[in-house]
C-alpha cells in the first residue's frame, strides 16, 4: 500500500450549503410538468372536468393539431363567481374534503391540480357562466394560476377553457411536441374515443383546423343512451355488427344463491387450492359486474392489431395489463390469427380500487385481481363457446320458373306424394344401415319408387343422385373386399418372410445383396503401420568442439561416476534473515496476481458466452448486436464451407458460423421490402372505407406508403369525415389476396412509426419472406469462396442481419481460439483434477 500512488480526490472542494426550500414558482413548474405529460393528457383533463360538471355536450377545437390553440367548451353547470379564484389554485377542488373520501370518489378528477398545472405550461383563459348568473365572465390567468384580468361577456350556461402555446415554459418538451405533433394528436384522439364510448348521453365532438383554414371533424359521438350506438357512431355499423355482448357470470343469477354457489365452486377450481376464496372475495364477486362487447371469434370479425381495445373500471378508462392479457389470450384460443375489438367495463366496489397511482389515473390497483380475472375468463368462455359450432346462413330469394301448368301438376300430387317421399327416405336409411352393419345390401326391400313428376329436369336430377348413391355403395363394398384380401395376403407374406428370415445365414445374405460389402481383417496390426523406437538414455552436453567433426555422429555418451568429480566454480553464500511463512505469503501473492491477470485476459477474450442453443437465441443475438457492428462483416475472413450449409468465418481470434440460406434470405427480404412496389388490381366498383376521421388523416398523410404497398385510393376533400376515402384498387400477387384488414393494420403501424419509414402489413411481409426464401442460396449447395464473401458482405449492408424473416438465426459465435493456449489447457486440466 505504501507504493500506491493513487491520489484520493475529495468529494467537493466547496463548503456544504444549507438546505432550504425551493421557491413556490419553481415548485409549481416542476410539479406541473409531472401532471400534464402530453397533448392527450391536457385535453383529457379538460374533458373530464366538463363531464364532471354534468355537461351533455362537449366540443374540442384544435388549431394545427394543438400547436397553436386548444379550446374545450361545454354546457355544464358552470362556475360560480366566488369560486373563480380557487378554480386554478393548486390542490383546490370541490370533489374531496378528506382523504377518506378518496375511497368513494365517483368523479374523474379529484386532486385539484389539472387547471393549475395547465396554467404553468400554457397561456390560459376561461369563460364561464353559472346557471344562477345573469352574464358570463371571462378571466385570464398568469402562469401561477392567479387572475390577471376579469370582464363580463355573453355566453350560455357552461364553461370554455382556452389554451395557447402549450409547453412553452418547457423548451425540451415543446420541441419534442412540435416534432411528433401528429403522433401526439393521434394519441389524443384514441383517448377521446374511449370517453365517447363510455359516456352515454354525452355528445363529444373534436375538430382540427389546419393552418390553411381547412376544418375537419376527427372524433364525434351523438350522445346516444347506449354503448352499442356509440360504437356504431365512432367506428361504423360494420364494427357493431361483428361484436358480441360479453355474458357476465352473475348477470342472471344475483338472486339465485344456488347458481352463485355453483359459480363459487367453479372459480375455486380455476384458482386452485393455493388461492382459496375468503369472505372478502365472495363480497367482491357478488358486488362485481362485467359490461361490454367483444369481437366475434369467427374469422374475419377480428382485427389485425390491438388498436380498438378499451378497458374501464367503474366507467374510468384505464390500462389494466393483466386483464388485457387474459382477454387476448382467451380470444386467441378461438381465433388465433386476429385481435379482438374490446369494450369492457368492470363495475366493482369503489373501496377495492386505488386510482391514485399515476398522474393520468390510467394505472389502477385492484384488490383481489385474481378473482376478477377468473370472472372474466368465465365470461369469455360463456360468450365464445357456442360460436365455433354455428354457421352463417344467407337467405337467397329464389324466383320460381315453373309454369302455371307445372304448378297445377305439382299441387295434384298432394298428400300421396309426401307419403311416398317419406316412405322412400325411410327405406333408403334402412338400406344404408344394413350396408354399414353387414357390408351387403342383398335381401333388402327395393326402394319405393317416387311418383313420376311432370318436370323432366327434376326427374333427371333424382336419377343422377340415386346413381351416385349406388356407385358409392358398390365402391365401398369393393374397397372392403379388396382391403380384406390385401390384409390376408399381407399376413401370409409376412409369415413367409419370417420363415425365410429364420433360414438365412450371413453368407446367403451377402450373396443376395451384392452391394453390401463387408471387409474383415485378421488383425488390426497387420494394416496399421508401426515403427519401433530405440531406448532413449541421458546424454552429456556436447562441447562446441564435438560439432567440428563428423556431423552424422549419433554416438550416445552415458554418464559416469567420474563425471561428477569434476571441479565446479566457487560461489559466495551469505545468510538471509527470513521465514518460511513470509516466503509462502509472497508466493501466494505472486500466484494471485498472475491468476488475476490471466482471468482478466480471459474475460476480455470471452465476449460471447451464449451457446448455440435455441433456448439462448435472444441472449446470443444481444451479444452479437453489442460486439459486432456492420463494418466488421467486411473484415471477416472466409475459412471455408461446412456441411454444404454453413460458412465458417474469422474475425480477429473469434470464429463464427453463418447460415448461408438464412443470411441470403434476410438480404433478399430487406431488398424486396425497400424497393418493391406492388401492382394494384382496379376494382370494378370502388369500395367506401369505414375509417374513423383520425385514421383517414393518417392514410392521407402517408399516401405514398399505401401506393407502394399496392393500394389505390380516391380522396374527396369535400366529403364528410369517415366518407372521404374510396378504395379504387388493391394489391394482388398470384395466390395472395389483400383487403381492408391490411389497410387497418398499416394505419396502426404508421401511427407509431418514425417519419419517412417504409411500413409493410404482415401479410405482405409474409409474401416477401416467401419470395426471398425461394430465390436464396439453398442448404446443400456448394459455394465458391467469392460467393461466400459476397454473402457475408451483404450482412453489413442490411438493417437487421441477425435472423431471417422466419426467425432462423443467421450467425452464431463458435469459439475464441486465443483461449486455447497452453496455459488455458493446463488450467483446465488442473481444475478437472481438483
TrEMBL record:
It comes from the Eukaryota. Residues 638-783 form the MutL C-terminal dimerisation domain. PROSITE patterns: DNA_MISMATCH_REPAIR_1. Residues 475-489 have a biased composition (Polar residues). Keywords: DNA damage. GO terms for biological process: mismatch repair. Residues 475-510 are annotated as: Disordered. Pfam families: DNA_mis_repair, HATPase_c_3, MutL_C. GO terms for cellular component: MutLalpha complex. The keyword Hydrolase does not apply. GO terms for molecular function: ATP binding; ATP hydrolysis activity; ATP-dependent DNA damage sensor activity; mismatched DNA binding. Residues 495-510 have a biased composition (Basic and acidic residues). Belongs to the DNA mismatch repair MutL/HexB family. NCBIfam families: mutl. PANTHER family: DNA MISMATCH REPAIR PROTEIN MLH, PMS, MUTL (PTHR10073), MISMATCH REPAIR ENDONUCLEASE PMS2 (PTHR10073:SF52). This is MutL C-terminal dimerisation domain-containing protein.
Amino acid at each position: 500500500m505504501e507504493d500506491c500512488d493513487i491520489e484520493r480526490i475529495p468529494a467537493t472542494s466547496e463548503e456544504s450549503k444549507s438546505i432550504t426550500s425551493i421557491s413556490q414558482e419553481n415548485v409549481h413548474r416542476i410539479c406541473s410538468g409531472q401532471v400534464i405529460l402530453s397533448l392527450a393528457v391536457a385535453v383529457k383533463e379538460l374533458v373530464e372536468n366538463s363531464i364532471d360538471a354534468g355537461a351533455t355536450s362537449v366540443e374540442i377545437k384544435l388549431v394545427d393539431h394543438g400547436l397553436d390553440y386548444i379550446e374545450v367548451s361545454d354546457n355544464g353547470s358552470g362556475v360560480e363567481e366566488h369560486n373563480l379564484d380557487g378554480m386554478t389554485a393548486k390542490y383546490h377542488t370541490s370533489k374531496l374534503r378528506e382523504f377518506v373520501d378518496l375511497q368513494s370518489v365517483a368523479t374523474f378528477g379529484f386532486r385539484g391540480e389539472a387547471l393549475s398545472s395547465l396554467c404553468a405550461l400554457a397561456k390560459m383563459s376561461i369563460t364561464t357562466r353559472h346557471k344562477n348568473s345573469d352574464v358570463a365572465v371571462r378571466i385570464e390567468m398568469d402562469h401561477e394560476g392567479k387572475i390577471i384580468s376579469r370582464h363580463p361577456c355573453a355566453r350560455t350556461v357552461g364553461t370554455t377553457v382556452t389554451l395557447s402555446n402549450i409547453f412553452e415554459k418547457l423548451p425540451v418538451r415543446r420541441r419534442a411536441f412540435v416534432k411528433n405533433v401528429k403522433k401526439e394528436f393521434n394519441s389524443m384522439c384514441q383517448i377521446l374515443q374511449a370517453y365517447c364510448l363510455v359516456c352515454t348521453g354525452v355528445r363529444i365532438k373534436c375538430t382540427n383546423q389546419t393552418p390553411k383554414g381547412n376544418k375537419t371533424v376527427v372524433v364525434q359521438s351523438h350522445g346516444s343512451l347506449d354503448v352499442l350506438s356509440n360504437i356504431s357512431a365512432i367506428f361504423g355499423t360494420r364494427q357493431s355488427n361483428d361484436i358480441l355482448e360479453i355474458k357476465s357470470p352473475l348477470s342472471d343469477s344475483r338472486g339465485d344463491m344456488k347458481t352463485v354457489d355453483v359459480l363459487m365452486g367453479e372459480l375455486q377450481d380455476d384458482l386452485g387450492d393455493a388461492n382459496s376464496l375468503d369472505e372478502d372475495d365472495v363480497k367482491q364477486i357478488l358486488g362485481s359486474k362485467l359490461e361490454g362487447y367483444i369481437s366475434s371469434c369467427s374469422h374475419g370479425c377480428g382485427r389485425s392489431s390491438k388498436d380498438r381495445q378499451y378497458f374501464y373500471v367503474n366507467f374510468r378508462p384505464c390500462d389494466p395489463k393483466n386483464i388485457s392479457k387474459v382477454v387476448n389470450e382467451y380470444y386467441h384460443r378461438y381465433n388465433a390469427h386476429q385481435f379482438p375489438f374490446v369494450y369492457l367495463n368492470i363495475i366493482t366496489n369503489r373501496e377495492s380500487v386505488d386510482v391514485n397511482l399515476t398522474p393520468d389515473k390510467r394505472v389502477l390497483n385492484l384488490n383481489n385481481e385474481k378473482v376478477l380475472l377468473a370472472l372474466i375468463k368465465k365470461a369469455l368462455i360463456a360468450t365464445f363457446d357456442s360460436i365455433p359450432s354455428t354457421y352463417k346462413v344467407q337467405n337467397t330469394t329464389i324466383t320460381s320458373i315453373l309454369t302455371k301448368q307445372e304448378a297445377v301438376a305439382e299441387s295434384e300430387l298432394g298428400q300421396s306424394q309426401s307419403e311416398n317421399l317419406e316412405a322412400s327416405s325411410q327405406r333408403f336409411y334402412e338400406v344404408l344401415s344394413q350396408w354399414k352393419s353387414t357390408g351387403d345390401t342383398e335381401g333388402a326391400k327395393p326402394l319405393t319408387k317416387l311418383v313420376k313428376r311432370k318436370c323432366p329436369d327434376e326427374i333427371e336430377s333424382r336419377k343422377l343422385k340415386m346413381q351416385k348413391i349406388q356407385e358409392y355403395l358398390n365402391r365401398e363394398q369393393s374397397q372392403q373386399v379388396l382391403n380384406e384380401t390385401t390384409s390376408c395376403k399381407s399376413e401370409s407374406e409376412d409369415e413367409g418372410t419370417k420363415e425365410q428370415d429364420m433360414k438365412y445365414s450371413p453368407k446367403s445374405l451377402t450373396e443376395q445383396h451384392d452391394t453390401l460389402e463387408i471387409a474383415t481383417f485378421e488383425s488390426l496390426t497387420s494394416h496399421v503401420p508401426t515403427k519401433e523406437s530405440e531406448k532413449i538414455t541421458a546424454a552429456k552436453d556436447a562441447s562446441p568442439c564435438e560439432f567440428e567433426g563428423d556431423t552424422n555422429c549419433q554416438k550416445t555418451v552415458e554418464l559416469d561416476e567420474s563425471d561428477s568429480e569434476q571441479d565446479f566454480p566457487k560461489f559466495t553464500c551469505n545468510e538471509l534473515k527470513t521465514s518460511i511463512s513470509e516466503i509462502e505469503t509472497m508466493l501466494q501473492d505472486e500466484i494471485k496476481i498472475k491468476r488475476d491477470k490471466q482471468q482478466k485476459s480471459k474475460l476480455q477474450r470471452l465476449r460471447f458466452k451464449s451457446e448455440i442453443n435455441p433456448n439462448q437465441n435472444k441472449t446470443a443475438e444481444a451479444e452479437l448486436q453489442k460486439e459486432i457492428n456492420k463494418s466488421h462483416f467486411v473484415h471477416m475472413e472466409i475459412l471455408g464451407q461446412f456441411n454444404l450449409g454453413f460458412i465458417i468465418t474469422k474475425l480477429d481470434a473469434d470464429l463464427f458460423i453463418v447460415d448461408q440460406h438464412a443470411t441470403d434470405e434476410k438480404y433478399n427480404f430487406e431488398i424486396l421490402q425497400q424497393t418493391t412496389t406492388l401492382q394494384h388490381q382496379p376494382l370494378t366498383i370502388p369500395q367506401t372505407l369505414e375509417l374513423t376521421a383520425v385514421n383517414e388523416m393518417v392514410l392521407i398523410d402517408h399516401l405514398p406508403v399505401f401506393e407502394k404497398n399496392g393500394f389505390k385510393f380516391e380522396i374527396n376533400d369535400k366529403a364528410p369525415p369517415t366518407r372521404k376515402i374510396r378504395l379504387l384498387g388493391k394489391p394482388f400477387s398470384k395466390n395472395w389476396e389483400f383487403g381492408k384488414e391490411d389497410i387497418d393494420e398499416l394505419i396502426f403501424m404508421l401511427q407509431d412509426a418514425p417519419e419517412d419509414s417504409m411500413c409493410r402489413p404482415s401479410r405482405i411481409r409474409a409474401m416477401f419472406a416467401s419470395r426471398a426464401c425461394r430465390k436464396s442460396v439453398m442448404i446443400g449447395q456448394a459455394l465458391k469462396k467469392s460467393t461466400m464473401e459476397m454473402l457475408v458482405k451483404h450482412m453489413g449492408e442490411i438493417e437487421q442481419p441477425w435472423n431471417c424473416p422466419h426467425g432462423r438465426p443467421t450467425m452464431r459465435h463458435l469459439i475464441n481460439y486465443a483461449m486455447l493456449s497452453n496455459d488455458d489447457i493446463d488450467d483446465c486440466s488442473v481444475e478437472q483434477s481438483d
